[in-house]
Amino acid sequence: MGQTYQNPVPQIGNTSGLFGDLRGNHFHSGIDYPTFGDGKTPILAVYNGHVSRIKISATGYGNALYIKHPTGYTSVYAHLHSYNQKIAQWVKTKQYQLESFEMDVFPGETELQIVKGEIIGLGGNTGNSTGPHLHFEMRNSRTEWTCHPLHFGFSVSDRAAPTLNSLQLVEIPGHGYSEQFLSKKTIYGPNIGNLLTHPLQLNGKFPHPSKPVTISHPAYIELKAADIAAIGGASGIHRITILENSDTLFDFKIDSFSFADSRYINSLIDFSSGTKSYRCQRSPGNLLPCIRAPKNNGLILPPKDGETKEIKVWCRDFYGNAVGRGFVVAANNQGIHHPNISPRTHGPNKAIALKDLHAEAYLDPWTLYDSISPDWQFFNPTNGTVSQKEIRLFNSSLPAHKLYRILLLADHQKLKPSLRSKTVLECLGKEGKKSYHTGSWDQDWFESSLKVFGRLRLVLDTTKPTITSSYPAQPIRISRGLSIIARINDQQSGIKEYRVTVNNRWILAAYDAKSNLLSIPISKEVPLGKQNILIKVTDHVGNSSSHTIAVNIQN
User: What φ, ψ does residue 297 adopt, rounded to 5°?
Assistant: First the structure.
C-alpha cells in the first residue's frame, strides 16, 4: 500500500477471528485481536488521521471509533471498553448535549486529530461481543467497503494449512433449487478416510481414489473447513477453488465486500440447518461479487455414460497455505428415481405479490436467492391472536435477503381501539424463535416489514418493561467514581428508550443489551447528598416503567 501501518494491538500475534468468518447473517468484516481482560489492553491508532465517526451502541459494535487516514482508508476499532481522555471528554460533552448514551456522530476534521501509535482507548467487551477483544477493520473511505486487513501489512501467526473436515455431495433438481435436497452423500469425513476421496498434492498430480462417486442429478459440494490461525477456535476460509477436470467450477475468494452484500452469506451456507458449511454453488439470487461460478453455476452435472469427471477441491488461507482433496464422479444410470418436480414460477429477479381477504404480502425482486412458487397457509386464530387469521408464509428455514412487506387484517371484535397502538406482528420463525415487529395502521390493516419467514399473527404487547435492582429502600451511601447497577428488560417489542434523571436533570447511564445491565456512574454531574435516581424505560409500543433508587452521595 506504500504506507507502514502500526498494529493496533502490537503485543498480540494471533487472532480470535479472521476476515470473512461465517457469522449469523453476515461475514466477519475484520480481524479480532484477543485482549485478555476487559479494560486492560491499550489499543493503538494504526496511522495518522482524524476521528471521523464515533458510534456508541448497546448492541452491535458497542463503543466504536473510526479514524480516517490520508491514505484513503479508515480504520475501525470496535467493542472498546473506553476511549482515551481526549476522546472520552469530547464524547461525554456530546452525550450530555444529546441527552443520550447511544449516539452516532461525525466529528470535524480538526476536532480530534490522531497520530500513529497513539493510545485511542482500551480493549473491551461492549456491544454484541462474547468476550474481551478488539474488532478491527480497514475500510475504503470512499466506498465504505471493508477490506481484508492482512493486505495492509498487519500480520498474524499462521504457518499451517487450513483443515478440511468434511465433504458432501448434494444432489438437487437443478439451478435455483439449492435447498431442495434429493440426496446428500458424505464422501469425506470422520471414519470415511480415503475410500472415496484422496489428498491432493501441490504439484497438481491427481491420485485416483479406489472407487468413483456416482450421481444421477446435478450436484454441488458442501464442505466444512477452517483456518486454524485463530486462538480458541477455527476461522473461515480465505479461498475455496473447485476444479472439474481442468475447468474452474467454483471460486470463492473473500478480500473485500460491501456491508449491503454481507447478507448473501445466507445463500452460501446451509441456512436451514444453521450449519457453518460452504455450499459451493451460486444460486440465481446470490450476487456476491467474491463468488465466481463460471461453469454450470458451480453444479457438477452427471457425466455421460462411460465417462468420468475429476474433481479437485482446494482450501487456502491468506498466506497460500493449502489443503485439497480429489475424487472422481461417474453417472449412476441404474435405478434412477426421477422425482416429480413442479417448475417454480418465480425466479429471484421477479417481484411477488400475494393477496387474500385476510392478508397481503409483497416481496421486491432479489428478496430470495432461489426460484420459488409462492406459498402461504391460513389458520384459525389461537389464544392471544388479534388478527382474523394466522398465516404461514413460505418456510421458516427459507432465508430472505431484504425486508418484505406483510399486511394482516385485524379482528376488530378482539381489538379495542385503545389497544391498537399496542399491536405488534409476531413471527414464529426457525427453531421456534419468536420475533416481534412494530408497524402502522391503515383502517383495520396492520402493515409491517421483516426479513424472516414463519407463522405470522397480530398480538398485543401490553406488558411494561422490567427494572430491577438489589438496593434497599433507604438511601445507600455511595462515593463518586462508583456506579449504580440496575437490570432492564422487555420480552416483546423491545426497549426503545431508557432515561435516568436526578432532580429532573438527565444523567449519563451506559446500557449493555446482551446482559440487560444499566450502569449509572456517580460522576460530578450527580449532586452530593441524598438524591433519588429515577430510571424510566419505554418499549417500542409505548409501555413504560419507572424505578427509583435512593442514594446518599459522598465525595
Answer: 55, 30
Which one-letter DSSP state was computed for residue 418? G
pLDDT reading at 9 higher than 70: yes
d(CA 501, CA 526): 9
Same-domain check for residues 66 and 203: no
Instruction: Using a pLDDT cut of 90, give the percent of the chain over it.
Output: 80
Cα 296 from Cα 174, distance rounded (Å): 10
User: DSSP E strands: which ranges in 389-432?
Assistant: 390-393, 404-409, 423-428
| Residues whose CB is less than 8 angstroms from the CB of residue 357 and which lie 6 or more positions away in sequence, other chains included | 409
Are 498 and 375 part of one and the same domain?
A: no
Residues 431, 552: Cα–Cα separation, whole Å? 48
Per-residue model confidence (pLDDT) at position 555: 86
β partners of residue 300: 219
Buried b (16+ CB within 10 A) or exposed e, 396-429: bbbbbbeebebbbbbbeeebeeeeeebbbbbbbb
| pLDDT, tens digit (0-9, with 9 covering 90-100), for 127-144 | 999 899 999 999 999 999
Contact call for residues 537 and 467 (beta carbons, < 8 A):
yes
Give strand pairing partners of 106: none
Number of structural domains (the chain) is 4
Among the residues of 241-319, which ranges form H helices?
Answer: 265-268
Residue 219 corresponds to which amino acid? A
Q: Which residues have C-beta within 8 Å of that of residue 438, sequence separation ≥ 6?
A: 424, 425, 448, 493, 540, 541
Q: What average pLDDT does this structure show over 447-463?
A: 97
Does residue 494 share a domain with residue 453?
no
Residue 35: CA atoms inside 13 Å, Cβ hemisphere, count? 31
Tell whether 324 and 434 lie within a shared domain. Answer: no
| Residue 275 DSSP label | B
- Over residues 528-540, mean pLDDT: 96
Specify whether 148 is located in the same domain as 173. no
Same domain, 311 and 442: no
Strands 291-292 and 183-188: unpaired
In this structure, are residues 121 and 84 in contact, taking their beta carbons and an 8 Å threshold?
A: yes
Q: Residue 374: how many CA atoms within 13 Å on its side-chain side?
A: 13
* C-beta of residue 298 within 8 angstroms of C-beta of residue 220: yes
Contact 94, 102 (CB under 8 A): no
Between CA 366 and CA 348 the distance in angstroms is: 5
Judgement on whether residues 124 and 58 belong to the same structural domain of the protein: yes
Segment 387-396 mean pLDDT: 95
Sign of CA dihedral 98, 100, 105, 109: positive
Distance (Å, whole) CA 55 – CA 519: 18
Helix (H, G, I), strand (E, B) or coil at 430: helix
- What is the residue range of 439's domain? 352-460
Whether 213 contacts 327, CB under 8 Å: yes
CB under 8 Å to 160, separation ≥6 — which residues?
A: 228, 229, 321
Tell me: do 456 and 502 sit in the same domain: no
* Domain annotation covers residue 339: no
Q: Are strands 476-479 and 544-554 parallel, antiparallel or unpaired?
A: parallel
| Beta carbons within 8 Å of 442's beta carbon, 6+ residues apart | none
